[in-house]
Write a structure and sequence with these properties.
188 residues, iron-sulfur, N-terminal domain of TfIIb, single chain
């Protein structure tokens, strides 16, 4: 590489002699950066989502390639966050691809010290049995002489990122079970 080639590859020289006097485009681009491509350029689709961490509800663009999440970025179309994410939201890709992600059900028996793996059907049956038992144990037909038909044995506290439709369905489910303590964290 001669001196002339070396000077021509210098960003300040390209800035002073080229079409980019402010050094915001081609003048600042090196051969190395010209070879780079965006992580999201190979995605098959972009799915709109909401960050799961807090009640703010920042919009996210979830990039999917071959059925796998490859990148999560802030959604610039979101009126809530306008494309910005906090550190937790920026790291939410770990929720789908992180090495600490569990893909099975872990259960620790009462007074136990070790976790055991359960299949999903067994875990769902255990949950259903416990909901039925808590409902049956806490059921009240009457209270202070008034018919109430309710249970105080179960309650629901919805997550901060549930949307209106999910909250509506949860409210319907727990009301049908007879629960009266139904709340959403986003409103608390």
């Amino acid at each position: 590489m001669g001196v002339r080639d070396w000077i021509g590859s210098w960003p300040v020289y390209r800035q002073a002699t080229g079409d980019d006097p402010l050094g915001r485009g081609a003048a600042a681009k090196s051969a190395g950066t010209a070879r780079l491509t965006a992580r999201v350029s190979t995605a098959d689709q972009v799915v709109k989502s909401v960050c799961p961490y807090c009640a703010v509800g920042c919009g996210q663009d979830v990039y999917v390639q071959d059925g796998r999440v490859t990148q999560i970025e802030g959604d610039p179309d979101s009126p809530v966050s306008r494309g910005r994410l906090c550190p937790k939201g920026s790291a939410s890709l770990q929720l789908t691809t992180g090495s600490a992600r569990e893909y099975g059900v872990l259960y620790r028996r009462p007074h136990g010290t070790d976790w055991e793996r359960l299949d999903l059907d067994t875990a769902m049956r255990m949950i259903a049995d416990r909901v039925i038992a808590a409902r049956r144990h806490g059921w009240q037909w009457e209270h202070d002489g008034k018919r109430v038909r309710r249970t105080l044995g179960i309650a629901s506290l919805g997550g901060a990122t549930l949307d209106n439709e999910e909250n509506y369905l949860i409210k319907k489910l727990f009301t049908a079970l007879g629960a009266v303590q139904i709340e959403n964290q986003a409103r608390v």
